[in-house]
Structure formats: C-alpha cells, structure tokens
Amino acid sequence: MKKNHVIVIGSGxxxxxxxxxxxxxxASVLMLEKANTKEFGGNSRYTAGAMRFAYDDFNDLKPLxxxxxxxxxxxxxxxxxxxxxxxxxxQHFNEGEPLTDLQHFLVEESLPTIQWLxxxxxxxxxxxxRQTFQKDGKYIFWGGLTLESEGEGDGLVQAELRELMRLxxxxxxxxxxxxxxxxxxKVVGVRYRNYGKDVEAKADSVVIASGGFEANKALxxxxxxxxxxxxxxxxxxxxxxxxxxxxxxxxxxLNGHFGGCHATPMDxxxxxxGNLNIPHIERKHYRKISYLFGVMLNANGDRFVDEGADFRNxxxxxxxxxxxxxxxxxxxxxxxxxxxxxLYGEYKTAxxxxxxxxxxxxLVQKLKGIPPEKALATLKAYNxxxxxxxxxxxxIKDGKNTIGLALPKSNWANRLxxxxxxxYPVTGGITFTYGGVKVDKTGSVLNENNEPIAGLFACGEMxxxxxxYGYPGGSGLTSGAVFGxxxxxxxxx
Length: 493
Ligand SMILES: Cc1cc2nc3c(=O)[nH]c(=O)nc-3n(C[C@H](O)[C@H](O)[C@H](O)COP(=O)(O)OP(=O)(O)OC[C@H]3O[C@@H](n4cnc5c(N)ncnc54)[C@H](O)[C@@H]3O)c2cc1C
What we know:
- By secondary structure, the chain is of the alpha/beta class.
- It has two domains: 5-67 and 83-126 and 146-212 and 434-492, 3-Layer(bba) Sandwich (FAD/NAD(P)-binding domain), CATH 3.50.50; 262-429, Succinate dehydrogenase/fumarate reductase flavoprotein, catalytic domain (Flavocytochrome C3, Chain A, domain 1, Alpha-Beta Complex), CATH 3.90.700.10.
- The protein has helices spanning 13-24, 58-61, 83-92, 101-119, 128-131, 152-166, 217-224, 242-249, 280-283, 316-324, 360-365, 372-385, 475-492, and strands spanning 5-9, 28-32, 50-51, 76-77, 124-126, 132-135, 138-141, 147-149, 170-172, 175-183, 186-194, 197-202, 205-208, 232-233, 254-255, 261-267, 295-297, 331-335, 355-357, 421-433, 436-437, 444-446, 452-458.
- A six-stranded mixed β-sheet has the order 9-2-1-13-23-22, with helices on one face. Strands 14, 16, 17, 18, 19 and 20 form a six-stranded mixed β-sheet that branches.
- Helix 1 (13-24) packs parallel to helix 13, helix 3 (83-92) crosses helix 4 (101-119) and helix 4 (101-119) packs across helix 13 (475-492).
- The longest helix has 19 residues, at 101-119.
- It is globular, with a radius of gyration of 23 Å.
- The N and C termini lie close together (12 Å).
- It binds flavin-adenine dinucleotide.
- The site of flavin-adenine dinucleotide has 43 residues, from helix 1, strand 3, strand 10, strand 20 and helix 13.
C-alpha cells in the first residue's frame, strides 16, 4: 500500500509529536522548520519541560521516570491529580464558561499521551526544585504538577528529534512556510522560502504546528491591545502567527480567546526576545514569579493584584498581563529578608536587577518611576493590615491575610519588617497566545461550517479553544503532545 506523505510545519513539541505519531502509523514525514539548526524547536526548547497530566498515584508516575531508584522517592508525597481536579483547574480559568470538548479531550488523553511519549524514549524527572516543599523530612508536591522531561524543554525536543530520525522522519531547516497548496478543496502541500528561493512541496496531508502570534508586534496590538506593544517575548522570535493566517486563507475558522495570552512578570531589563545562545538555566533568570511572598507596586505606588490569591502556578500567567496593564507597563516587587530563602533562584543570580536598602524609607527612594512618598504609604498600610496572629506556611494556602485593605492579600501576608529590603523591577513577558484555529479531536482544521478542511491538521499553540483567561502551568506542552499525537495519527490515514 502507498505510504501517506505528511508535511509538518514547525519543529516544537507539538510538531514533533505529530511527526512521531504519523511515522508510527506508517506515513513518511517531512518536517519544515523556519529557524536554523541553532534556533529550531520553537518555544518548546525554552520551557522547563514541566508537563501537567492526570494521575492516580505514584504507580502512574514511576514507569515514566528516568531514575526510578532515586533515593528521594521513598520520602516523597506525590499525592494524586485526578481528572476531575485537572478539569476544575481549567474551568477556573474559563471565567464561568463551560469546559470545551477540547479541554475534556486534553484531560482525558493527558496520561495516555505522556505514557506514549515515554514509549518513544522521552524520560521524566520529578520537579523537586520548583514544585515541592520539604516538611518533616518529606518532599511534598503541591499543585498537581509533578514531572518535567529529562533535560527540560531542550531535552524534550532533542529526545523527540532523535525519535523522529530513528523512525525515518526528515527535517529541513531554514524553510519559512508561506502558504498552503490547495487542489479541488483539499490541501495538497505547501510553498516555502528556503535561502531566497520559493519551493513547492506536495503531500497527502499537512499538519501546521507553527505556534501562536506572540512574537508579532502588530498582531499583539491587533488582538491583545496597545499595552502589548512593549511586552518582552519570553521565547522564540519565529512565532509570528503565520500558521494561523495560512489556515485562515484556506477557510479555517478561528476559535478561542484572541484577547488572551500567557504572560508572566519578567525582569524589566531582559532583552526583547528569548535567546537560546545563553545557557538554559540563565534564560529562566529573567522570570520573576515569587511575588506571592511580597508585594507589587505600580508606577502610582499602588498595589494592583492580590499577590497571595493562590499558588504561583495559578496566578503567574495572569500577573504578567496585570503588570502590562499598569501605567508605563512596569512594577516593583518588594520583599524583606525573611523570605529570601523562599525566592526562586532567578532572584539571586548575578544578573538579576534589584535595589536594596536597610529601611523602607531608603528603599522607596530607589524605586525608579514611583513617587517615593506614595510607595511608602502603601507599604506601611500593607504592614499595618497584616493578620499577625495567623501562621505563615508556604506549603499550603495558609490564609494568613491582610485585614481591611481594599485590595487584600489573601495568603502568605508577612509584614515587611526585616532588613535588608529588596525590590525587583519587572514588566510583562508574553509566553504564548490563546486564540487560534478551530480543530476537532482528530486535529482536523474546521471551516466556518464546522467541517474538516481536507488534508489540513493543526496542533499546539496555534490551536484555539483550549485555554481562555489563564492556564494551569505545565498544560501547554501537554496540549501540544495530546493534539499533536491526534493530528499525526489522523494525517497519516
Ligand atoms: C520561557 C517559556 C517557558 C515555558 N515553560 C513551559 C513549561 O514548563 N511547561 C509547559 O507546558 N509549557 C511551557 N511553556 C509554553 C510552551 O512553550 C508552549 O505551550 C509549547 O512549547 C508550544 O509548542 P508548539 O509546538 O505549539 O510551539 P513551538 O514550540 O513554539 O514551535 C513552533 C515552531 O514553528 C516554527 N515556525 C513558526 N512559523 C513557521 C513557518 N512559517 N514555517 C516553518 N516553521 C515555522 C517556529 O520556528 C517553531 O520552531 C513555556 C514557554 C516559554 C516561552
């Protein structure tokens, strides 16, 4: 029987999963990537490799581990993360809208897809450094996110690339796909630019996995608003929304929340785009998401979010947006010395931007862009409102709150009283966008009548309708894998 030939656009996690699935089902696969050999792999290579999935207990996790004999495992409480909890976490960010079919599919397929990745030689490690607290000699996971791929995002994509090659797939770099070829209403290939030449490549089906539009300033302004002109791009510069526009041009329907995106507080002085040339560990240093242990002040000297509303996994993706919505799109994060041990490593590196002082009066003089007297008044009002009788406990939502402030801090509210005080300047860094093309559970791209466009599939960041007003951390890679696998299987048929 003739092998189906599948073209996959992009080389991030979603593209790799689509390609591996198509190869597994007997298709031949050509992957076309816009970036060169150094920058391939999209945002996926910038990630920590953290992947959220439903599991019952450690028995589900153990077969996935690179090192199942790690001596810490006996002293680790992984808890469980039932499907109902994953669904509830997604629902939390839907702002009252019901869960979509795609969200149900994501949750249902999450564990089988991670197991499938493991069967394709991707291995995982427990995220001890960022997702546990130690209590009574035990490691306790919080928040349902427990595993990351070995070697984080770079390790994930490299492992997937090895698998692609092992299964006989091909990848071509420096191929900027510009449009889809259509014959008799069916997508039959692509047109791409390669070293200044236009090239046509035919295929039985095409999977687009070319990411969202977060790196495209004009599209950010169009869909997200003017505040996003200045957003730093946390990952690749290549995700310009081309795949969404290509699909639209052949009749694809758009889906999801185009005004929504994932964005986190980042060092105000980070470069405009992420950069794979600096070591992976240093790339993360720009992120500043330990705000829950302090307070954030905007250019007016006001607090603007409940910093302790929830565990960071459930707020960090919203608070980048919140910072960009502030006047002049920056904020200062203020901490006292008691919480330094709890701050993520990225607050303690040589290149982290911060100011320090022994009194709050001196500190506010150093908060560039904020009237000092206003900042001091806010910090003093916050200190006076802290519920001192309650006990601080970072391992749980401790309910240690403020009393009487119009904008409360609901958990982990400690007085800022132990010097030296430190403040870190932050802005919003965009991670990825939520709006995209409409697909069904097979990964088929749908037209305005909800009918599949023959020969066209999509997955990953460029699919809409999976995330709306926020996102439980670690769901992006899982979504790429779940819909990538589905799209690859369908494209191979
Ligand atoms: C700093 C950072 C940390 C993150 N951490 C996590 C995490 O720990 N866990 C998690 O779940 N998610 C995380 N995310 C989100 C995650 O990166 C995305 O959800 C996921 O990687 C999207 O995968 P993708 O394959 O759809 O897109 P990408 O990985 O971005 O791949 C898209 C690819 O398409 C290519 N491309 C674009 N246009 C074209 C074109 N016209 N022709 C050919 N190729 C093209 C791009 O060059 C790129 O290689 C993080 C993101 C960032 C930026």
